[in-house]
Specification:
six-stranded antiparallel β-sheet, Nuclear Transport Factor 2, Chain: A, 4 helices, alpha+beta
Length: about 190
């Protein structure tokens, strides 16, 4: 008698051959979910660190406590995610420039902040103003700071005078070296 089992003796397929149809989509979804979680964590960390920054919290608190802002926007005033954020520290001086949306029940506004701080000192606000929907601005700086020129960002639609061209070099008959222009291509 033969001792061979019944049926064909075809070798069994490997794990990948049997399972690739479900493993590929699940693997792709896993990679996408991991990237999404990492992105969400980074955005959450960035926003929480921004909300804990003194310039952000002080500026929002000053805007919420101002009677003119409360009458224009209504109460309560909620702040949204900043539209523009720039925080730089150079040689112990921290410079913060923020544009924070403020939402009130009557209207919305945009809080513009331009502040600097020397070391661990107090924030000095060059600009601290709320721009309302109708285009009017409420300056939130104290009276002493209002005497300084306002560093409010210029309107995007306003035309600015172009810079004058640089002066030509004065000299003898020798040929002046060519000047580099924005349109020059450097290879």
């Amino acid at each position: 008698m033969d001792a061979t089992p019944e049926g064909s003796l075809v070798p069994q397929q490997g794990w990948w051959s049997r399972n690739w149809k479900w493993f590929v989509p699940v693997g792709c979804l896993g990679v996408l979910a991991s990237c999404g979680c990492l992105g969400f964590a980074l955005v959450g960390f960035g926003y929480s660190s921004l909300k804990n920054m003194d310039a952000f919290t002080e500026a929002v608190a000053i805007a919420r406590s101002d009677a003119e802002v409360r009458s224009a926007l209504g109460s309560p005033i909620d702040n949204g995610l900043p539209k523009q954020t720039s925080v730089q520290t150079v040689n112990g001086v921290t410079h913060a420039r923020l544009a924070i949306p403020l939402d009130g029940p009557q209207a919305d506004g945009l809080l513009h902040v331009d502040a600097k701080k020397q070391g661990d000192g107090e924030w000095e606000y060059d600009t601290l103003a709320v721009e309302l929907e109708d285009g009017s601005r409420i300056d939130l700086r104290d009276d002493a700071a209002r005497e300084q020129p306002d560093a409010f960002p210029p309107d995007e639609g306003a035309e600015q005078a172009p810079l004058p061209p640089p002066e030509e070099p004065r000299g003898g008959d020798e040929e002046a070296p060519a000047r580099k222009r924005d349109s020059d291509i450097e290879l």
